[in-house]
Write a structure and sequence with these properties.
D-Amino Acid Oxidase, Chain A, domain 2, FAD/NAD(P)-binding domain, binds flavin-adenine dinucleotide, 15 helices, about 450 residues
């Protein structure tokens, strides 16, 4: 690249960071470096679903890109209404069907590694990737902002790099977020300082997730026509439920189960609480993830209906996750730094939308940074526009997502016959709305600098 208008460092090569790298690499005048803490770009062995709203954003990368994705999930994209999730009342010996969640367009389901692989394959050579680079902190000179002095990045291995714009896509345990909150705390009113600083660290949501992949062959050998081999099924029970659906062209069934301890929402996660969580005994509070034996894994779901038990019998082992979230932040940008994805709004997983929200963040960031009238001097304004248009939306999604879980775990007093409608209304933003309005507004705000965006 001959003379880039600025150099963007993306910290974190997860779904959000890689989507941003792919998007920005279409802007000929922006140089991109991706710094990833892990040795290689990889994803955990689990499924990820992308709702139509976010999938329509991915389609903007062109028909080839879309085709690659479609090949991985094995079915076509549609705009028709389709049954997406079959929900059962399963807290009884023989469960009953409660409702079918009808969505306009399908939930596109992937193996995470497949999805990641497609993004990686679209990174052009002009985008420089750096592995084993765990960011510790950054410094930007504010007096100089908007100015030319670079932002300095400091990595765990002692190395240092510079950039003009830093985007923290470094997930829930973000290193960029605490640095940014400290910067922000310096400039807010003294009585707001504590509240800003309280957003540095993630908080436990009271939710524990149980994740595994089940061999479809194994399940088929037991129950040749089991429903989860064909359809996305949700087995709902009081305070604990799970969902299961086929991925990787039917090779696996993705399993995600949840327990919700409502009284512990927003508490610090304690590995050794009185609540029996045998797998966490003796571990430190920092350890959010734990490997489970099959017996430990199925324990919270043992009272669910027989149909669910057939699925559980096929679990070999699994992983337990203490699901942490990020408080609603006072800002996701400061100077020439912004955060996106889980770093900005890690949310409960009950609407399967965290990755989708990071995809939307990425596309909006590309729209404001890549706009021809955005220069190094106007980057802070571009990032303020991103914050203005994305933060309220993703915060609302986070709230809706938590409510979905509470509804599915029968924690809200809703008559059974109204539950389907209530869950649908709370979720339909994911297929009935578009990012496009925000994109248009972003362009309008970038082009008309007389409009105040703060
Ligand atoms: C049980 C469960 C099920 C879910 N299911 C869905 C679903 O179906 N659909 C959906 O949309 N979402 C789902 N989500 C949420 C989704 O997984 C996340 O929202 C999404 O992965 C966030 O992407 P990200 O790129 O922001 O962060 P991450 O995917 O966490 O990526 C962050 C990257 O940054 C790197 N990194 C971290 N720290 C540093 C550092 N200091 N320096 C450099 N690199 C760093 C990490 O190694 C990682 O590669 C689910 C979540 C859970 C817990």
């Amino acid at each position: 690249m001959s003379d880039p208008k600025f150099r963007v460092a993306i910290c974190g090569g997860g779904v959000g960071g890689l989507t941003l790298a792919v998007a920005l690499s279409r802007c000929q005048d922006i140089a991109i470096d991706v710094y990833e803490a892990a040795q290689s770009f990889c994803e955990i062995g689990a499924g990820v679903g992308v709702w139509p709203r976010a999938f329509r954003v991915l389609r903007k990368f062109g028909p080839d890109f879309e085709q690659q994705l479609l090949q991985r999930c094995g079915y076509e994209y549609t705009e028709e209404y389709v049954p997406a999730v079959r929900s059962r009342k399963s807290d009884q010996a023989v469960g009953i069907e409660l409702f079918d969640l009808m969505t306009k367009g399908k939930l596109m389901r992937f193996h995470r590694a497949d999805f990641h692989g497609v993004l990686l394959s679209y990174l052009p050579p002009s985008c420089t990737t750096h592995n084993k680079k765990r960011l510790i902190s950054y410094t930007q000179l504010l007096e100089d902002c908007p100015g030319k002095s670079p932002i300095t990045l400091t990595f765990k291995d002692g190395s240092i790099a510079t950039c003009d714009v830093l985007i923290g896509a470094d997930g829930i345990k973000s290193a960029v977020r605490p640095c940014m909150m400290r910067e922000l705390a310096e400039v807010v009113n003294p009585d707001e300082r504590q509240s800003v600083l309280s957003c540095m660290n993630p908080i436990w949501s009271g939710v524990t997730a149980y994740r595994t992949l089940i061999s479809s062959e194994k399940l088929r050998a037991r129950c040749p026509d089991h429903r989860v081999l064909r359809e996305f099924t949700q087995y709902m029970g009081k305070d604990a439920y799970f969902l299961a659906y086929p991925i990787s062209l039917g090779q696996y069934v993705n399993f995600a189960g949840f327990t919700l301890e409502r009284d512990l929402v927003d508490s610090a996660y304690k590995a050794d609480t009185e609540i029996p969580r045998p797998s966490f005994k003796g571990k430190t509070n920092d350890e959010w993830v734990s490997e489970l034996t099959a017996q430990q894994f199925v324990e919270p779901f043992k009272d669910l209906e027989e149909d669910a038990q057939h699925v559980l019998e096929c679990v070999d082992k699994g992983t337990l996750w203490a699901v942490h979230t990020v408080k609603t932040l006072p800002s996701t940008n400061f100077g020439r730094v912004a955060i996106m994805g889980d770093a900005a709004h890690a949310m409960a997983p009950f609407q399967g939308s965290g990755a989708g929200q990071s995809i939307e963040d990425a596309y909006l960031l590309m729209t404001v940074l890549g706009h021809k009238s955005t220069t190094l001097e106007t980057v802070p304004r571009a990032l303020a526009i991103y914050d203005k248009l994305r933060r309220p939306f993703s915060s609302e999604v986070a709230q809706r997502s938590m409510r979905s879980g509470q509804l599915c775990a029968f924690q809200e007093e809703v008559p059974l016959h109204e539950l389907g409608d209530t869950i649908t209304k709370n979720w339909e933003w994911a297929w009935l709305t578009e990012l496009d309005d925000a994109l248009e507004e972003a362009v309008r705000l970038v082009e008309d600098s007389s409009i105040d965006v703060n």
